[in-house]
């Protein structure tokens, strides 16, 4: 175990020191998004259900506003499909990627499900192992996340074979140990420790679990309930009622999460019994059942956003105090789940790390 940790740390450090660098100006904005798992358009293609959603938000929201697009791994599902199959079905999405690329706004990072792209002749976009975004405040290290896992660095060929020759013929959708509680915890803990020890922000994908300031939704809700309880005695009138309603909705959401997660994984924390250091972020995935999560970054702030199609989004967005933006001319909706200033995050890393 100790040897695995040393190896993973060395791999993460190598990725950081050798990463391509993007230096942000005050006008620049970056979308970090991952885990599309593009297939052949068939019934086991994970992206089919969010096809229109992802194409709309990239083409009609981020591209016209000149955002950088960082594709943080597992964009193509090469463990179950050939590149030609994927390319044949997802022509429109590749055209959108190319539009970002032509504007010099595309960075494509490899994951464990699409690392075979390095063998594809004349692949249209440069392929990266990681990306270092230099903001005026703090470095942001973007990598897929599998680099901290012995399973994927040493045995990815075995995982690939099982997916392609066993699960795919059965029509089973993407099953990844990256989403199992034990593996997810290991990946996130190592990425968290590296960021904390080096005074930077890490943004990963891989586990498909959105994280903001090192907190998953379960931990975040607990902290949010505590904050609201502190505000409640000082509030009056409509504010007092609003707080009571929010706490009720959060308690309902917390109960749902308890039922959906294993008890052991809920008890485990990235930071043990210490105060959380807000250095780890996860963009989630594009293949969520009810929408898409992503990270938005500019020179001074970082945000976790949630995109969904009207009528299909998660209930907590409508129940809570979240603003919902309408993407004009579509049924797509955007909500900022969490946002914070980079200088505040840097201060907490320096004081608590």
Describe the structure.
This protein has 353 residues and is α/β, with parallel strands linked by helices. The protein is 41% helix and 18% strand. An 8-stranded mixed sheet has the order 5-4-3-2-10-11-13-12. Strands 1-6-7-8-9 form a 5-stranded mixed sheet. Helix 2 (51-62) links the parallel strand 2 (29-33) and strand 3 (68-72). It is globular and about 65 Å long.
Summarize this, please?
This protein is α/β, with parallel strands linked by helices and 353 residues long. The protein has eleven helices and 13 strands. Helix content is 41%, strand content 18%.
Q: Using the alpha-carbon principal axes, give the shape.
A: globular
**Cα end-to-end separation:** 23 Å
Uncertain residue ranges: 151-168, 263-267
State the total count of DSSP E strands: 13
Q: What is the succession of H and E elements? A: HEEHEHHEEEEHHEHHHEEEHEEH
- CATH homologous superfamily name of the largest domain? Metallo-dependent phosphatases
Q: In DSSP terms, counting alpha (H) and pi (I) runs of 4 or more, how many helices?
A: 11
Estimate what percentage of residues fall within beta strands. Answer: 15-25%
Overall SS class:
alpha/beta
Give the strand order of the largest sheet, numbering strands 1, 2, ... along the chain: 5-4-3-2-10-11-13-12
Domain count, please report it.
2
- Percent helix, as a range, is 40-55%
CATH class of the largest domain: Alpha Beta
The biggest beta sheet, please?
Answer: 8 strands, mixed
Task: Describe the oligomeric state of these chains in a short phrase.
Answer: single chain
- At CATH level 3, the topology of the largest domain is Purple Acid Phosphatase, chain A, domain 2
CATH architecture of the largest domain: 4-Layer Sandwich
* Average pLDDT number: 84
Rg (CA only): 20 Å
